Amino acid sequence: MSMSALLKPKPYDFVIIGGGIIGLNIATVLKQRVQSASICIIEKETEVGLHASGRNSGVLHAGFYYHPDSWKAKLTQEGNQFLTSYCKHHNLPINNCGKLVVARHESDLTGLQTLFERGKANNVPIEEITEAKAKQLEPLVKTYKTALFSPTTAAADPVKVIQQQYLDAKKLNIDFLFNYNVKQLVPQNRTGIEGKKSIIIYPSSASSASSSSSASSSTSPSSSVASTGSTPILEAGHVINCAGVYADVFAQQLDFAKDINIAPFKGLYMYCDLPLKRLIYPVPDLNQPFLGVHFTVTFNNQCKIGPTAIPALWREQYGNLFNSYEPLNTGFNSWEEIYNISQQHLSLIIHNANLRSLASQEIKKYIKSFMIQGAAELVEGATYSRFSHFGRAGIRPQFVSQKTHQLLMDYIIEGDSMSTHILNTISPGWTCSRPFAEMVINRYILK
Fold first, then answer.
1. Whole-angstrom distance, CA of residue 72 vs CA of residue 258
2. Same domain, yes or no, for 45 and 181?
3. Distance between CA atoms of 154 and 138, rounded to whole angstroms?
4. Count of alpha carbons within 13 angstroms of residue 54, beta-carbon side
5. How many CB atoms lie within 10 A of CB 67?
6. φ and ψ at 396, to 5 degrees?
7. What are the C-alpha distances in Å from 138 to residues 65, 162, 275?
8. Same domain, 317 and 365
9. Is 87 part of a structural domain of the chain?
10. Residue 132: inside a domain, yes or no?
């Protein structure tokens, strides 16, 4: 028996799996609401935000894309306002550049009008402008007759935002365990914390946890690690699963997420030197949760195109032949994982003709010239020589309904009195993170 198995589990009122933007915000809001609660965030990496939260574009979406009845519509505008104010308050970089959505041809005009109507229905500032006005705002832009301008869309630095939110959580005496790779969640039939049922959280034998704990008591995780050199087992009155691309794994261990599975997509960006000052997006296919290749102007005025929506073969398939940041086998776990995820993508392609077309087009975007073709429809001067290199890849934790074989378009939350599972945290999850956390706590955790 390992030394860690002999340890009495360290009890917490709430244990959050995943140190991304959603996990941090849920922990922060929960601690503000219940100041006496003991809360620990466990993260398999060495620091917060090394996956989706730190790899996204940093765009603060305005909220006009989404159907008025969706969670995305309800939360995006409020999240935009919160993060804009948050960046200013903490002197974090933010680029209030605004966004142009352009029509590439006459058939885009219907979609453009739909976006405009959704913006109005969602109470989002949105302007319908002429082609001449669009060129005043961005001289290089191409559009057919008309365009939309979103003045509240902005770009911030996702890494600096999440680092600041980590500091905020530490000030609230929220504990952190890094290098803690969760293996199993086991409900306890016996009464645990304060006479309530609990969940025991077992780490992988490969974990080597390091603690960042504000508590100084002898029962803190840091003292357990220091005294034994082993990863502590935790006991939670309530587990909050914010594990991103692994959220379904832990949900299914507790008999949730029965009818959904993950089909991850890889997002790649390519940098360019075009002197753009505003984000430029095409009219998307509103039946898909992807916005198409577009121009992003970052918080520090760098210009890039992307992201792709290339089907990923495993959950953290960041590496590729054209990406010098990470090796090809980054995040690889097993051939079984490749088989299962390939089955999900195959099911999608079989049952969705438009996704068959999307997949074939997206895979070609590994080729630089093909990716640039789409970008050239949006701006003047988007020639091959203006584009340089691919940046770090990101993985979209996209889930699929096993009943309908369709991509799920909105956030999914499941749970009971012992656990809450945050599933399908797709874009604009980063923008929505604070009001999303408040909604989850109000409706599912402290209801």
1. 23
2. yes
3. 15
4. 18
5. 14
6. -90, 120
7. 21, 31, 10
8. yes
9. no
10. no
Q: Between the ranges 215-224, 296-305, 402-411, where is the mean pLDDT highest?
A: 296-305
Give the per-residue pLDDT at 324: 66
- Taking each helix axis from N to C terminus, what angle separates 71-89 and 158-171, rounded to the nearest 10 degrees? 80
Instruction: For strands 419-423 and 399-401, give the pairing.
Output: unpaired
422 neighbors 241 (Cβ within 8 angstroms): yes
- ∠ at Cα 249 (246, 251), nearest 5°? 110
pLDDT above 80 for 214 = no
Domain total in the chain: 2
Same domain, 305 and 181: no
Pairing of strands 182-188, 303-306: unpaired
Predicted confidence band at 355 (pLDDT cuts at 50, 70, 90)? Answer: confident
Residues 289 and 437 placed together within one structural domain of the fold:
no
pLDDT at residue number 199: 95
Pair 58, 120: CB distance under 8 Å:
no
Local confidence band at 190 (pLDDT 50, 70, 90 cut-offs): low
Do 292 and 389 fall into the same domain? yes
Q: Tell me what pLDDT residue 366 has.
A: 82
Least confident of 275-279, 326-330, 422-426: 326-330
Mode of pairing for the β-strands spanning 39-42 and 175-178? parallel
Task: Quote the pTM value.
Answer: 0.91
Q: Are residues 386 and 425 in the same domain?
A: no
The Cα–Cα gap between 43 and 177 comes to 6
Question: Same structural domain for residues 438 and 371?
Answer: no
What is the domain-level CATH number for residue 250? 3.50.50.60
Host domain of residue 342: 265-396
User: Over 90: is that where the pLDDT of 286 sits?
Assistant: no
- The overall average pLDDT reported for the chain is 89
Q: Is residue 34 part of a domain?
A: yes
Residues 227 and 374 in one domain: no
* CA dist., res. 245 & res. 263, Å (int): 9
Bridge partners, residue 12, by sequence? 236
